[in-house]
Design brief:
The chain is mainly α. The protein contains 8 helices and no strands.
């Protein structure tokens, strides 16, 4: 049917973003697009990387940056989905607190104050040893949206 044909064409065409090379080289290429502020292309490259190497340690970084590309473009629902999946895939990983922080920020932008505050609470409760930058951002975000 038409939608599966379109889906196949999209999948085929999107496979051409990452250059040939090692996973590290491909990740660096995708991340270079983020740094150049080519966010739509970066999103596609990061999605391709995650699909190609879901178990690689760099996949968690790729998920985080993928979420950021959507957040910056004000696609908060998609950003929230990605940050949630990123957190759920590695709830104790290096990016776990960052993913929860960004999930809360995305929820706040969607007008979902209650869940945003709950998410910020979880960051503070589950990550007592937060680095000062994340801790400061959680405090600022809680204050900004009026969490109790």
């Amino acid at each position: 049917n038409f939608s599966s044909t379109v889906g196949q064409q999209t999948a085929i065409s999107s496979k051409k973003i990452l250059p040939k090379g090692t996973p590290d080289e491909q990740y660096k290429f995708a991340f270079s697009l983020v740094r150049k502020d080519e966010l739509a292309l970066a999103s596609e490259a990061l999605e391709e990387f995650i699909e190609s190497y879901p178990g690689k340690p760099l996949a968690s970084n790729a998920r985080y940056w993928l979420g950021r590309t959507y957040y910056v473009r004000k696609e908060y629902r998609r950003a929230a989905e990605i940050f949630l999946v990123a957190y759920q895939s590695q709830p104790k990983g290096k990016r776990a607190a960052d993913n929860l922080l960004r999930l809360g920020m995305s929820l706040a932008e969607l007008g979902n104050k209650k869940d945003a505050c709950t998410t910020f609470d979880k960051v503070e409760r589950d990550f007592l040893d937060l680095n000062s930058i994340v801790k400061k951002q959680v405090v600022q975000r809680r204050k900004k949206i009026g969490c109790d």
